[in-house]
Amino acid sequence: VGALAVAAVAFGILTVGGIGENLVYYWGPTELRASGAKAVGATIRLGGQVAPGSAVYRDGSELEFDVVDGNARVHVKSSGVPPQMFREGIGVVVEGTMTPAGHFQCHRLMVSHSNEYRAPGKGEKADARSLMRSTEGLGDEGARQP
Amino acid sequence: VTAALGRSLILLALFVSVAGAVVAFAVGRRPTRAGAGWAERFAYAFASVMAAANAVMVYALLAHDFSVGYVAQVGSRSLPTWVTVVSLWSSLEGSILFWGLVLGAYVAGATWATRERHPEYAPYAIGTWMACAAFFSFLLAGPAQPFRDVPQPPADGPGPNPLLQNHLLMAVHPPLLYLGYVGMTIPFGLASAALLASRLGPDFLRALRNWLLLPWTFLSVAVVLGGWWAYEVLGWGGYWAWDPVENASLLPWLTATAALHSALLMERKGILKGWTVTLVLATFLLTILGTFMTRSGVFNSVHSFTQSAIGPTILVFLAAALVWSVALLALRVDRLSSEGAIDDPKSREAMFVLNNLLFVLFTFTVLIGTVFPLVVEATRGVQMSVGRPYFDRMAVPIGLALLFLMGVGPALPWGRGTGAQVRRALIPPLAGAALSAAVGLVLGVHNGWTLATLALAGYTTQVTLRELWLPLRQRMRARGEGLAPALESQLRQGRRRFAGYVVHAAVVMIITAISVSSTLGTSREVQLRRGESVALGRYTLTFLGAEALTEPHRQALVARVAVEREGKSVGVLTPRMNYYPNQREPVGTPAVRSSVREDLYLSVLNLDVGRQTLGLHALVKPMVAWIWGATAVLGLAGLMALVPPSRRREEAARASRPAGQLVGTSR
């Protein structure tokens, strides 16, 4: 029984530690800005709208654009091939992290599948999670039935 | 009219199941022959009524009767017939109706099988099943109402979710998953009944194991098929992402697997009774929890699930089932004590116990990682998820330990073994481990975890093959038979044991293939113009061009990609994007070229017919096809273990066996 208790405690520590290190935050640009330095290095799914006029295609498949909600703007650099529906003004979710240089380095770019998504107005908070869930692609199959 | 007919059938099902539950529990307390007959009749009636209700819904779907709420929600005139039939389970309300059909079939079958053999506790079991049936009937009558009236029927409907009509596997995966999920109600009822009636003897155990094995087999295949579906449809090139939906199907599988093993120990040694019963009860609770997680929309947002009454209703049922389980266990805690003990930590029994602890640990790991974000959001309002690395880091070591135990356990003797015996059992399989790791090294495996997996898989394979081969050799020697007749008599007499080891071999293959396919292989994302090529491993891929297609129920953009392997043309693959009328965004459909050695997987990121450009995600993944093949073997072996021994043989065995020696006859 003693050994079991020790094992249970060890398991508990491992689990809590493991979860703590591998959290993926679902943030909009406002929340990302509010989190400050905490965002650097953390895994983040940033949801928002591709700001009109901000998308720039560089050599190869390099792509830069801004993700905005009503209040804040985050500059995103992506190196992957953009998905079919990617365009300015559309709802996107980008997964990646903030760099010390101040831009968001994205390694996965997904376009929202929701027909209803609209960018939040001034002062509104983006419902990041419903945007995430309406976005297929990470094996994150919101629509999948059991 | 159709909707009203459907609603009346649902109400009838509710009445029959409530009446059946009341009668059955009354008969359990005061057994009468006539009462037992009525309990059985109610069970059959529920199955018939549910079958009729499902038939009405399928008829309404096929007739495009948009005055029925569910048909208006998921039907469409332009769909191929198979999609129309499959849409029965493509959305929430219909899938609960389908749940009712499967539950009815299980309850009828289990009632028929248990009524005569186990008269002492059969009424309680029927009562528990009917109580569950009553809950799902209530769900269909109230919160989820598939037969809702549509006052002004539309001329056409939107059709089901495009992701779900995009692949034929959607016709196979959900029914199998339901056969697994819903089937766990039967062992739950049996365990409840055995506790209520205080009958935890060998008869109960045999019934429990068989009724656990059947849904377990379906669930095993269904979990893998879910991965296959994701692989063939979602286009990101993997088959498992630790998504809550996937975890929901895995959790009851883990506890059911543990229960199958501990039931064997309980049957043989009379130990772990309370533990086994707890696992069986927990398995059922996890299926309900999984249904709650996937059906209530709770993962969209903790706050969205109250928008429909379905989520809270399932939650109430889950709480009731939990209280019921705990109360029953507390009630019979004195009857659950062990009749034996484990004599030696170097015995097979001890390995069974270790196996069970690891499975439970695995269950908690997945459960915590899945539920944690919900708790955080509910308490602190912060939205997040637990990333894949957590699950991988926890699951890989536990999985490897289980893989090793699959080798060590069967190699060790039952009871108390001498040190020499143990050494003789455990040392030779090291040859298999070395061989398999060496093969891996030669073929270019450098990842430490993968090498460890290969070594342990080699170890376990050697033990498993030995366990399969030894009884055959004994038969051949003892009777001078050839291999074929020895195999035949082995399959007739030691079928369960034989099938068990075939399942082990299949699981070893699956784990190996998962490990190799997820650590080896290459991938690339490229943007191509027509005529351009890209190299990937042994392959050269050339974009031949893109075209638009119109099909009856969808439109598609198709990319034609010529594939050369080591300079030789091996054909053209056509990954595509399908556009469905009810969704703005396309659904990508990857093209997969499977071979024994590896899969070539092409998925379209973007495609422009006007400019003839293609954004391509291409992957080479070794050994993926082995996962699907080994799963087929696993399913067949599971069913093989279930084929009952012929009546005559069973009776002969019973007659020749002294009373009281019923325990431990499985080998």
Structural summary, described in words:
The complex is a heterodimer of chains A (146) and B (667). Chain A is α+β, with helices and mostly antiparallel strands and 146 residues long. Helix content of chain A is 23%, strand content 29%. Chain A has 3 helices and 7 strands; from the N terminus they run αβαββββββα. The longest helix of chain A is centred in the first third of the chain and has 20 residues, at 2-21. Chain A starts with a helix and ends in a 13-residue tail after the last helix. Chain B is of the alpha+beta class. Chain B contains 22 helices and 11 strands. In chain B, strands 3, 4, 5, 6, 7 and 8 form a 6-stranded antiparallel beta sheet that branches. In chain B, helix 8 (173-183) runs antiparallel to helix 10 (202-233), helix 12 (273-295) runs antiparallel to helix 13 (310-331) and helix 15 runs parallel beside helix 18. Chain B is globular and about 80 Å long. Chain B starts with a helix and ends in an 11-residue tail after the last helix. Mean pLDDT of chain B is 89; it is low at 657-667. Classes of the chains: A alpha+beta (146), B alpha+beta (667). At the A-B interface, helix 1, strand 1 and helix 3 of A face helix 8, helix 11, helix 12, helix 14 and strand 1 of B.
